[in-house]
Amino acid sequence: MAKVNITRDIIHRQIKERGALGFERHYHVTDPFIRRLGLEAELQGHSGCVNCLEWNEKGDLLASGSDDQHTIVWDPLHHKKLLSMHTGHTANIFSVKFLPHSGDRILITGAADSKVHVHDLTVKETIHMFGDHTNRVKRIATAPMWPNTFWSAAEDGLIRQYDLRENSKRSEVLIDLTEYCGELVEAKCLTVNPQDNNYLAVGANEPFVRLYDIRMIHNHRKSMKQSPSAGVHTFCDRQKPLPDGAAQYYVAGHLPVKLPDYNNRLRVLVATYVTFSPDGTELLVNMGGEQVYLFDLTYKQRPYTFLLPKKCHTSGEVQNGKTSTNGVSNGIHLHSNGFRLSEGRGHVSPQVELPPYLERIKQQANEAFACQQWTQAIQLYSRAIQKAPNNAMLYGNRAAAYMKRKWDGDHYDALRDCLKAISLNPCHLKAHFRLARCLFELKYVAEALECLDDFKGKFPEQAHSSACDALDRDINAALFSKSDNAEDKKGSGPIRLRATGRKASISEDEMVLRERSYDYKFRYCGHCNTTTDIKEANFFGSNAQYIVSGSDDGSFFIWEKETTNLVRVLQGDESIVNCLQPHPSYCFLATSGIDPVVRLWNPRPESETLNGRVVVDMEGASQANQRRMNADPLEVMLLNMGYRITGLTSGGAGGSDDEDSSEGQVQCRPS
């Protein structure tokens, strides 16, 4: 851990007042603070699960909501309960929010009784009750730019808007997801962009996350009101679809194709939490049944779709990321991702040798790979990639580690790394072969065969290797099996939007929006999110340097944002951690879950005794969570009871078949 001397910055902050904000942002949450993060206090006062937490803008108040239908306002800095009141709800409270610019006087709650209540904390009274939803209210959202307005998301599939300056008894429907996705869709979460309050993100019980332009939605509403066929409470009508630009969809590129398999295994994909980064340029999604995903809203990228490769022949000698004087593209077109490899001879920039310290990291990663420590190898390669983002060899090696680990989404990340390596070096032999293997593992069988044929033509000396023969056998067996013929993806509509049994209820406009969806930038693995649908993931730090998420194993996980490496795991609950809300300006974290307490975490003094809540074996915890996510309900129950399930290994998590041991060095060994 690098030592940091902040003396000069402190002096600069004192001399120049404008430097105070920069100082706070830079030192708000640092690596030494994360390494020393520990439990400061437990706030006791609830008698049921604590399902939601909310800081006020200054960070001197913390509100909590619980299954006991009470909300409590705390002084977290002094560990005191300032106020406790029954909210008038008759079921579990799922969301609590301070209304902006109300002097922390107005608090809004949403609950499982389908109601939204507005409370005046100064008199401890409920001043407004809204009962327009017909199913559980899961989230409330507010916006600083609109101090009298807020929104709710509920399991009736509706996003409702409230304006306390107008009729206090009614709300209006802003978005009706059922018009596009059928009656079974449920809105689970929503959030407003903190830097541009005109944008609203919505998550539902499906892998797609939607980003709406509220201004365009309102204009659409006005036009629908003028239409004689418009419904009373719906202005997202089938007859008049949303205008272009009013909605953007985001999805992890592999999930739409995996959805039928997940449905067959009764594994539900649901966005349990969405939030924007402090600067509003990134969107973080905790995907229930899967991983945590970060989407870049500025530099968007389409999901990686493999199109028909063009044959080309070359005598180039650039292989596996190493230097050559000549090279030719394999003709793979990545139209959906915005770049395309050339079909003829082109110039390949010589690969710059890694500096000595990065070469050492790469060698450490190779050694971890040789010892089958896949996660450690991935983390080391990721560290090196952050410092050398244009080195094809590092991407190719990390792809090999992903393919060996086989956690959920690993083969898709490996495919992305292979394509990146090929874009940097079109004659990267191992990346080409691994690409074919990834396509096969992702069930793109016909495309895998085309890619393998292209590989054989490009690298004829490898055409009859044991690795090629093994993959060729696997592909042909899959092509000729009756089950795979039924699931054949080629020539039957959009390849990423396979029918799921509910296709008839999805409108054509919805299909178009899904096909235009954007892919993720980063993926964070290790936690488990299958048991509750309110599990949060958040940015930690004013510059969003870290990602935090709760987990079904009672822990919460902390990752470096840029490398995606797991850096800290802490035991936050006896059962499940659902809520994590970082303080707006301190390295201070509030968490809650099944236990009827709120826990506060901050960096502990260096002189303090060993933190008993630290999970030392982070790799073991992550592997156990991968098994948990892929276990059947009986196995999950046994895991919760403390029994150890045998027969499930980290290599099997994710449901992929073991690779043939005869695949040879072209597949397995890093460069």
From TrEMBL:
<dbReference type="Pfam" id="PF00400">
    <property type="entry name" value="WD40"/>
</dbReference>
<dbReference type="InterPro" id="IPR036322">
    <property type="entry name" value="WD40_repeat_dom_sf"/>
</dbReference>
<dbReference type="Pfam" id="PF13414">
    <property type="entry name" value="TPR_11"/>
</dbReference>
<feature type="repeat" description="WD">
    <location>
        <begin position="43"/>
        <end position="75"/>
    </location>
</feature>
<feature type="repeat" description="WD">
    <location>
        <begin position="86"/>
        <end position="129"/>
    </location>
</feature>
<dbReference type="InterPro" id="IPR045151">
    <property type="entry name" value="DCAF8"/>
</dbReference>
<dbReference type="InterPro" id="IPR001680">
    <property type="entry name" value="WD40_rpt"/>
</dbReference>
<protein>
    <submittedName>
        <fullName>WDTC1 protein</fullName>
    </submittedName>
</protein>
<dbReference type="GO" id="GO:0045717">
    <property type="term" value="P:negative regulation of fatty acid biosynthetic process"/>
</dbReference>
<feature type="repeat" description="WD">
    <location>
        <begin position="540"/>
        <end position="569"/>
    </location>
</feature>
<dbReference type="GO" id="GO:0005737">
    <property type="term" value="C:cytoplasm"/>
</dbReference>
<dbReference type="InterPro" id="IPR011990">
    <property type="entry name" value="TPR-like_helical_dom_sf"/>
</dbReference>
<dbReference type="GO" id="GO:0080008">
    <property type="term" value="C:Cul4-RING E3 ubiquitin ligase complex"/>
</dbReference>
<feature type="repeat" description="WD">
    <location>
        <begin position="570"/>
        <end position="611"/>
    </location>
</feature>
<keyword id="KW-0677">Repeat</keyword>
<keyword id="KW-0853">WD repeat</keyword>
<feature type="region of interest" description="Disordered">
    <location>
        <begin position="650"/>
        <end position="671"/>
    </location>
</feature>
<dbReference type="InterPro" id="IPR015943">
    <property type="entry name" value="WD40/YVTN_repeat-like_dom_sf"/>
</dbReference>
<dbReference type="InterPro" id="IPR019734">
    <property type="entry name" value="TPR_rpt"/>
</dbReference>
